[in-house]
Amino acid sequence: MIQYNTIDKITAFSTERGCFDPTLPYDGFNITYYTDDDPKHISTCRKILSMMLEINDDHLILPRQVHGTEIAEVTEQNMGDKFDGIDALITKLPRTCIGVSTADCVPILLYDAHVRAIAAAHAGWRGTVARIGSKTIEAMQQRYGSRAEDLKVIIGPSIGPDSFEVGDEVYDAFCEAGFEMDKIAFKRNGKWHIDLWQANAIDMQRLGVAKENIEISGICTFKQHKDFFSARRLGIKSGRIYTGIMIK
Question: Which of 234, 239, 241 is closest to 35 using CA atoms?
């Protein structure tokens, strides 16, 4: 598990794969229940992570993501929900870990020390185009009164720009959404590459998040598939990284 530099009383991390055979799609630490992994293995991994975080299993929250922009608040009342069709979570509950599941997509963590609120968002290229990062910030503003300038942001392990080769249709989608392509895209050997890390960072800066408050892990899951799950390496039927955040 890699832990991020955060303020006191906040835990933020991404799980590492820890596999024996990197060619096997489910070999490694995986808590994502909607994969084809063995349910017993998933349950064991959840128990291990809950013990490490010193929380009850039902306080380890993972939504069923759909590459959309729906955002949900985790409360005492809906703690047991599956959060189907949700791609970002926000909460102020202590001792409750919220997170997202990825295997090349971009996990985004946010925290506001002033109002003691946290968020986790899943930004694949579709979610990035739809500006899931800034929409999550807006949800925190509306629900908790957060200010963008007070937010700290972590962009976790995901496919890097050197590895994220895309077709013209993906490039065009970013253009149409108003992204400054000279800042997030380049061409190599006749193929477009897009920097999802910068695309998300720039999008959140647009709302007022300070550049120095955005921590980019710089870990490319495609290149480091032995340490982190990568759908482009292993196929969509594979394990997932869990990137989570919790108020202690």
Answer: 239
pLDDT digits (tens, 9 = 90+) for 189-199: 999 999 999 99
63: region left, alpha or beta (phi > 0 left; psi from -120 to 50 alpha):
beta
d(CA 66, CA 5) in angstroms, rounded, equals 29
**Whether the Cβ atoms of residue 214 and residue 153 lie closer than 8 Å to each other:** yes
Contact 190, 224 (CB under 8 A): no
The C-alpha angle with vertex 144 and arms to 138 and 145, in degrees rounded to 5, equals 70
CA dist 240 and 231 (Å) reads 9
* HSE (side-chain half, CA atoms, 13 Å) at 125: 20
Residues of the chain with pLDDT under 50: none
pTM of the complete model:
0.95
